[in-house]
Every structure is written in C-alpha cells, then in structure tokens.
What we know:
The protein has 254 residues and is of the alpha+beta class. The chain is 33% helix and 21% strand. The chain has 7 helices and 10 strands. It has a 4-stranded mixed sheet with strand order 4-3-6-5, with helices on one face. Strands 9-8-7-10 form a 4-stranded antiparallel sheet. A two-stranded antiparallel sheet has the order 1-2. It is elongated.
Amino acid sequence: xxxxxxxxxxxxxxxxxxxxxxxxxxxxxxxxxxxxxxxxxxxxxxxxxxxxxxxxxxxxxxxxxxxxxxxxxxxxxxxxxxxxxxxxxxxxxxxxxxxxxxxxxxxxxxxxxxxxxxxxxxxxxxxxxxxxxxxxxxxxxxxxxxxxxxxxxxxxxxxxxxxxxxxxxxxxxxxxxxxxxxxxxxxxxxxxxxxxxxxxxxxxxxxxxxxxxxxxxxxxxxxxxxxxxxxxxxxxxxxxxxxxxxxxxxxxxx
Length: 254
C-alpha cells in the first residue's frame, strides 16, 4: 500500500513536470516565432522561424504584378470620335527612356493621368495606352496645342493624322536685344525659357480639357477643302507652327 502511494506521487510529479515543461516550451516558441522541425541528424529536432502566411501572400501578389521591362514596347493611341491616331512622340520618347522601368499598371495610370492616357492592355512585352476622346481628330499635316508631361506643347500631325513631333511652348522667346524671335518648330529655344505648366493655367471655358482631349468641332463637310485662315483659330489646328505659336500666346495669356 505504501509503495502504491509512492508510485502515485511520483507519477503526479512527472505529469506536472511534463505539463510545465510543455507550457514553457510552447510559450518560448510562440514568443520567438519558432516551430519544431525534424532533421536527419541528432538531436533529430530543430527550431526554425515560422513564416507568416499573410506576408507570403502579400509578397507573392507584389512579385507577380506585371511590370514594365527594359525592352517593353509602348503604344499610345487617341480614340477620337471619327478615327484612331497614334502619338509617336510619346512612343519614341519612352522607348528610349528608363523612367517607366519596373512600373505597374496602376503606377503607369498615375504617371499619365495629366495627359489623359490609361493602360488598356499590358504584358511584359508591350503596354498599350489609350486616350478616349469625345472630340474629333486633327487633320493631317497640321499643328495644334496639347499636353506633353505637365507642359503645354505644340504638336504636329503627319499625312495620316498621327502625332509625329512636338515643341514645348515657350511663352518668352526673345533675343538678347529684347526682340521677339521668329518661332521655329525645329530650332532650340534661346535665352530665358518660360514654359507653361498645366497646373498654372487659369481654367476658363474648358481650356485644360481642350488641351488634353482635343478641340470640340465637327468634321468638315468637304474634306478636300483646306480650312480657311479665319477658321484655323476656331478649330485650333494650323497650317504653320508660327500660327499655332501666336494662337497659344493669345490663348494662354493670363
């Protein structure tokens, strides 16, 4: 009988010790974010750090986002009411630039929001941007005002109506003697440069939206006729860059 009581006491002590040790071990593992894992060498068990599942999911989602690569091709389209044209100026610039490298679709949309472009299709080889306009396209071989980055620019269309070149509008093109220089679409500006930022424009009559989306005018009834000189200013498209420059100077004058 005495031996049986001693055995019970010993078993109770062992059980309490086991429970205490198990609790202490569990507390230690939780506190240090550890778990036990079997291994092939003595002592056949080892502690390793736990991996947070939510962190894994977040990392996986971030890693798997499609991003712009070094050789990604960019296509910029403007969907006017009557036609779709390409903005070759932006396509050429960003193909040679590293500015867009590693950007995701949401980052690209944020980058081009001031120019009205959104990503319509994207993979590692090609990104297609589209500017949906409720306006009509500019005629071939014309000059018109638009937006380049966050600056007002003068664009030129080719024989197909695609945008092929541009020149930032400098509202202060003067020679050193103070005389107004002749505006040259191909030359580099000299002297003090005074470019017009979209954010600095005083909004009037939908001016900023016109610059981003295009002019609100109907197609000519007879496409074979050149627009008259007095209509150029109404339609916002010009035969010469000088006329576009004069128009910009008057339109953007504060």
